[in-house]
Write a structure and sequence with these properties.
50% of the residues lie in helices and 17% in strands. With 258 residues, the chain is of the alpha/beta class. The strands form two sheets. It has a seven-stranded mixed β-sheet with strand order 1-2-3-4-6-8-11, sandwiched between helices. Strands 5-7-9-10 form a four-stranded mixed β-sheet. The chain is globular. The termini are far apart. The relative contact order is 0.11.
């Protein structure tokens, strides 16, 4: 286990596990927290043994309760606002571009910038009491971490506009019904157990295959052309085809048919 000022970082079962450790501040996102998140995901992006990453928050109240208003209140100018957006979006981009699937484990509410952080991940798994809300409009601001673009890509422009305007804090089941959350813990199931259940299909794949799958999804997310996406798909196919893991699996199938 390693720790930064605001994060607890571990690797187990070939899964990078990152926890925002500011429960006394509802895991709000200061510039330092954002920088640490970006750095951790960048640092581990070259680890070819990883199958997935899980991002969560400490405690059971908040995954991340938006930006750190006590810090951000000093940022008043247009230049300050532009700098904050760039800084936050770069951090979230390190998560979006992480080479294997990233799961947000929602241990509590994800609000404002915290909801944007959750959408930067590929999947979202929630505790039964968790929730999500794009409440930026209540502060008379728009989305500020690049999450508006993620929201529109995920649920479509019409639904995203309604979510932003209504600024509702949705419970986990409602968020799942509209496609914001992928799994909710079952009755008597802990969030950790739900996350492990969600990870089971990923454990069945070797890392290089997961990287190829993620690259294809990321190409669509980044708006690459079809030709660019096909080149990425080809590169992933070639890498996985010539890998010894492929031939070991093929030999097992052929042996059963012999």
């Amino acid at each position: 286990m390693t720790s930064t000022e605001s994060l607890i970082v571990t690797i187990s079962d070939n899964v990078l596990r990152v926890c925002i450790n500011r429960p006394e501040k509802r895991n709000c996102l200061s510039r330092n927290v954002l920088a640490e998140l970006g750095q951790v995901f960048a640092d581990h992006s070259t680890d070819t043994s990883l199958r997935a990453a899980v991002l969560t928050g400490a405690g059971d109240k908040s995954f991340a309760a938006g930006g750190d208003l006590k810090e951000f209140v000093a940022l008043r100018s247009e230049e300050d606002a532009q700098g904050l957006f760039r800084h936050a979006n770069e951090a979230l981009s390190a998560i979006r571009r992480f080479p294997v699937p990233v799961i947000a484990a929602l241990n509590g509410v994800a609000l404002g910038g915290g909801a944007e952080l959750a959408l930067a991940c590929d999947f979202r798994v929630a505790a039964t009491h968790a929730g999500m809300g794009f409440v930026q409009g209540k502060l008379n601001i728009s989305t500020g971490f690049g999450g508006g673009t993620d929201l529109i890509q995920l649920v479509g422009a019409h639904r995203a506009l309604g979510l932003l305007i209504n600024a509702e804090i949705m419970d986990a089941h409602k968020a799942r019904a509209i496609g914001l959350i992928d799994a909710v813990a079952e009755q008597e199931e802990s969030l950790d157990q739900c996350v492990e259940r969600f990870l089971q299909p990923l454990y069945a794949h070797v890392p290089q295959v997961l990287r190829s799958f993620k690259a294809q999804a990321l190409g669509q997310r980044l708006g690459l052309t079809r030709a660019e996406r096909e080149r990425n798909e080809q590169a992933g196919f070639v890498e996985t085809w010539v890998h010894p893991d492929h031939w070991a699996a093929a030999d097992r199938v052929l042996a059963r048919k012999a």
